[in-house]
Design the sequence.
């Protein structure tokens, strides 16, 4: 006889292996410098990957590409091949809302793929604090230009995250 209690479905990432690698974090100020450098260079040295799927409210950091975490595992070899083909990208930085779940998981998977393919001159990183940290730093500590480097920035949306 069934007890009638329904168990929670497993999280989306349970269908994939846990990442082996634990990539380091890049602070927002360092990413800002990297974006500025890219804008004055003819070749990108980094790739910024936004792994949010349906929680894009408030905007995204310009120069980032959106590859939702739920599909990332299937795209790893393609992403590695694209990065390798550029020959100039040395850092791939992942972020989600706060970079506590999806961002670190995807960065770990990507570093695992780099290791598997024997690519040593490219490293995977996490944006410290995710997009929320980026906006907080831009609004509270400056520089304001961080917010100007966002596409679709909606100031009112971010008010809810400014405490603490």
Sequence:
């Amino acid at each position: 006889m069934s007890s009638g209690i329904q168990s929670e479905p497993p999280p989306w990432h349970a269908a994939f292996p846990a990442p082996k690698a634990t990539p380091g974090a890049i602070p927002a100020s360092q990413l800002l410098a990297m974006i500025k450098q890219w804008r004055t260079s003819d070749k990108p040295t980094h790739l910024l990957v936004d792994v949010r799927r349906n929680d894009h409210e408030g905007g995204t950091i310009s120069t980032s590409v959106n590859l939702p975490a739920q599909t990332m595992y299937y795209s790893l070899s393609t992403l590695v091949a694209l990065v390798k083909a550029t020959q100039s990208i040395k850092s791939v930085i992942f972020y989600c809302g706060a970079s506590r779940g999806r961002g670190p998981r995807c960065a770990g998977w990507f570093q695992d793929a780099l290791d598997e393919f024997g690519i040593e001159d490219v490293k995977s990183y996490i944006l410290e604090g995710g997009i929320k940290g980026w906006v907080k730093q831009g609004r509270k500590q400056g520089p304001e230009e961080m917010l100007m480097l966002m596409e679709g920035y909606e100031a009112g949306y971010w008010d809810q995250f400014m405490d603490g």
Summary: The beta strands are 25-26, 46-50, 60-61, 64-66, 91-95, 123-127, 150-151. The two ends are 49 Å apart (CA to CA).
